[in-house]
Write a structure and sequence with these properties.
With 213 residues, the protein is of the alpha/beta class. The protein is built from ten helices and four strands. It starts with 7 loop residues before the first helix and ends with a helix.
């Protein structure tokens, strides 16, 4: 992954004398250490990684070049079909909708869906990195929930801190629909496409509920 998300990998590779082909996602998409490492939530980055995997495999095994292209095409058009259609549907029906979130894993998906994520970026990052949240950010989010400035609340169910618990309780009390996402595969034996599609459909359902009032 890179972007300091898995810092043990370079150490492991440095001890490998076989000089393997390495795909560093952070380097590929141009995001340095300190940037948002959760690139699997960026549909554009998913496509970049997919194309790079194909080109790396082709370089390693030129004789099977067409096979890798065929498998990539199938993955993109069949395996990711519902994923792509869910993104398109949300963008088409709810573009511009103001939303709130618990942390930065949603910060790249929201714009890809056409949603207006108005939670302070400093709060999103603090929750993701486990650092202190400012009083000002808490007050801002409390106001956004209390005055229904956000239409739905999206939270990471794998990282429900006391601050996130409080916000979720406020959202429920104020009848603001919510949706869950997770940082890693849920369930653990799921596929990327099934996991992401299920979450997108949950977000779409929350948006539909909010639209109905």
């Amino acid at each position: 992954n890179g972007i300091d998300y898995d810092p043990w990998v370079p150490k492991l590779l440095s001890a490998d004398q076989s000089q393997p082909t390495v795909l560093d996602v952070g380097n590929l998409v141009g995001v340095a250490v300190g940037g948002n490492p959760h690139r699997w939530y960026n549909p554009q980055d998913v496509q970049l990684v997919l194309r790079k995997i194909v080109s790396d495999y082709q370089a390693l095994d030129p004789a099977d070049s067409s096979y890798f292209v065929k498998k990539s095409l199938y993955f993109n058009t069949a395996s990711l079909k519902l994923y792509h259609s869910a993104i398109a549907a949300i963008k088409s029906n709810y573009s511009g909708t103001p939303v709130g979130a618990s942390e930065s894993i949603f910060a790249m998906l929201a714009p890809a869906l056409g949603l207006d994520l108005i939670t302070p970026p400093t709060f999103l990052r603090a929750i993701s990195e486990g650092t202190d949240v400012s009083v000002a950010d808490k007050e801002t989010i409390d106001n956004q929930i209390k005055n229904h400035l956000i239409k739905i609340y999206v939270y990471n169910s794998q990282n429900v801190t006391p601050d996130v618990q409080a916000q979720l309780a406020e959202a429920k009390a104020d009848h603001i629909p919510y949706a869950t996402i997770t940082e890693t595969l849920a369930p653990a034996n799921s596929t990327y496409q099934a996991w992401q599609t299920r979450q997108l459909l949950g977000i779409e359902a929350a948006l539909a509920k909010a639209a109905k009032g």
